[in-house]
Hints:
With 405 residues, the protein is an alpha/beta fold. The chain is built from twelve helices and 18 strands. It has two domains: 4-22 and 216-403, Alpha-beta prism (UDP-n-acetylglucosamine1-carboxyvinyl-transferase, Chain); 25-202, Enolpyruvate transferase domain (UDP-n-acetylglucosamine1-carboxyvinyl-transferase, Chain). It has helices spanning 25-37, 51-61, 73-84, 104-112, 148-157, 176-188, 218-231, 252-255, 293-302, 322-332, 366-372, 396-400, and strands at 4-7, 16-20, 66-68, 88-93, 116-119, 128-132, 138-143, 165-170, 194-196, 199-202, 235-239, 259-266, 269-278, 282-285, 307-310, 345-347, 358-360, 381-384. A four-stranded mixed β-sheet has the order 2-11-13-12. Strands 3-4-6-5 form a four-stranded mixed β-sheet, covered by helices on one side. It has a four-stranded mixed β-sheet with strand order 7-8-10-9, covered by helices on one side.
Amino acid sequence: MMTVKKINKLDSTNLNLDINLPASKSISNRALILNALAYSPYDIQNLSDCDDTRVMIKALDSNDTTFDIGAAGTSMRFLTAFLSKTVGEWIITGSERMKNRPIKLLVDALNSLGARIEYVEKEGFPPLRIFGSALTGGEITLNGGVSSQYISALMMVAPYMQNGLKIVLEGDVISVPYILMTKGMMKEFGVNAAFENNVIEIKPQTYKPIQYKVESDWSAASYWYEVLSIAGSGQIYLNGLYRNSSQGDSKVAELFEQLGVKTEYQKEGVLLSTTKNYVAAFEYDFVNQPDLAQTFAVTCCLKDIPFHFKGVQSLKIKETDRIAALINELGKAGFALFEPKDGELAWQGERCEPAAEISIATYEDHRMAMAFAPMALTTAITIEEPQVVSKSYPDFWDDFEKLVN
């Protein structure tokens, strides 16, 4: 039976919130893999308490040979590479949606580097049977437009390949900050990776155990920027964020200056406050920050700011086809979005007939729920399957309740 969360129209005046954000899922999951590869005796500090990270911890701590990672895409990709170099026979599976998310590119790459991975059901998709052993490594060529998680998965196991690894990325490379995040974290664990001219090169090396603490999640911060932008007044303090972050989504601070929110960096977090500086139209290439697109689409519509997004082609292979989902769900609220061409999303101010009662489908996608929740500052809404936020921000609804009190 479907669960729903009904939210009455919220009072947007006198906002003054203090939010403890979740730890970064992206950093947590990389740290867990690197910690395991380093055979570290230390526990990672401040790990994310989200579904993706929990299933990663469970898999790495388990004595089982079969792993069900549910809807956790990061875990599927990172563990596929990790298990391929871990001696044994493994099965990795997931939710029905996960079984329809492509993984052929990663499997083909690993198999060409000495792995032995087979499909249990449908060619090109999980579940996978992995026969873990030493990887030979070598040189491969990948389309730079693929998910950076494939690239990061290969990078992290590369130091233990007999011949190291050289990845030549063809075409435009998307989500570069996530590749740089992986490179930087590998460096912290004692491994050097070169990345220049679209070529990644990693020689055989050994990770060193270190004590590591995860910073808060800039992607999660984006929903509070959205709240303040839509409210138009007030302030919000977000704990655990820093100016010099390895997270690509820290760009949200600069981008929201165009939508009336300024950021003041303090010792242990950031203070958000409002300005009256709004652009007449918002244009941005989200190729390096695809997870922010939903936040900005909803914000722009609710502030009546036309927009044109580019670089959002990877949204089609996320938890759902996020471009189609945004067009559908913002249509319910009376906004006629369209896809000018593949990898783009736009709204030119056109309206359509809104639904009498706005009920937002979330498509098993945590970011749909969180990006649409602030719509309640303008109208009463219903969020379907609100529990999906547990994928990255389990306490989101508890924090959102602070808007009511």
